[in-house]
Specification:
Largest sheet: 7 strands, parallel
Bound molecules: NADP nicotinamide-adenine-dinucleotide phosphate
CATH superfamily: NAD(P)-binding Rossmann-like Domain
Strand order of the largest sheet: 3-2-1-4-5-6-7
Structural class: alpha/beta
Number of domains: 1
Radius of gyration: 17 Å
Strand content: 5-15%
Helix content: 40-55%
Number of helices: 8
Length: 248
Amino acid sequence: MSQYSDYVPPIDLLRNRVILVTGAGQGLGRAAAIAYAKHGATVILHGRTVKKLERVYDEIDALGAAQPVIYPLDLEKAQEGDYNQFVQAIADQLGRLDGILHNAAFLYGPSPMEYQTLKQWQSLLQVNLMAPFALTKACLPLLKAAPDAGIIMTSSTQGHHPAAYWGGFSVAKAGIEALVKIQSDEWSALPALRINALIPGVVNTPQRAATHPGEAKENLRQPDDLMPVYLFLMGMDSKQVRGQVIYC
Ligand SMILES: NC(=O)c1ccc[n+]([C@@H]2O[C@H](COP(=O)([O-])OP(=O)(O)OC[C@H]3O[C@@H](n4cnc5c(N)ncnc54)[C@H](OP(=O)(O)O)[C@@H]3O)[C@@H](O)[C@H]2O)c1
């Protein structure tokens, strides 16, 4: 459990803020998008499958929260120009960006490294490491213009403590933690811009079900259980928290 698990966010924590959530169509991304919208944010719902994003859009709309925006982009295929187009669309449509939750992730079932292919590693590194880097970089002009911008990267236990059979996924997530340290160091003179990583731990999501089939789900934490930490790190109350890797 994190030291921020008991955080009680004010209901207007993210009022007038524009927050981008990647992989918002299911699991933790969906829960975070809804939590941010409930706390006042206009949320940009990024993902791969439009139908899933539309369902989350409808859930947020039904809450009477600020109208979200859907932006599909396959992070495995995206090139620099696609990221620039994405950011231009945010600037044109919403005029600002106050935070990013890099949540989208992709993995293959665990296997010994000798059976993992170069193509698999390319996909794993592309979606889980290079895309968060490229998207953050493209968004920087908007983030630097924000009064208080929070960036959250998502790591995993396998990234923090690389272990057998997690191969390219572990390496990508370990890379994310290194990226956070480097970027935070570079932003030490920019108090309005902060970046942290969080490690969800075991949570009942479609990804967990895919990697651990047959596991009893009733004892697992649900995505909503983690939202105090996700809200804390995105809002002003975490202004002094910088370059940290936080376990949920
Ligand atoms: N659940 C856990 O126990 C656990 C534990 C440790 C860390 N985490 C981390 O927490 C984050 C969320 O996990 P989760 O369990 O909620 O995952 P999830 O249910 O698998 O959701 C992942 C999301 O990423 C999107 N995505 C995957 N590949 C993509 C691509 N090429 N382009 C764009 N979007 C893509 C998916 O979109 P589509 O549905 O459209 O494919 C999906 O919405 C991940 O970073 C994960 O590594 C989770």
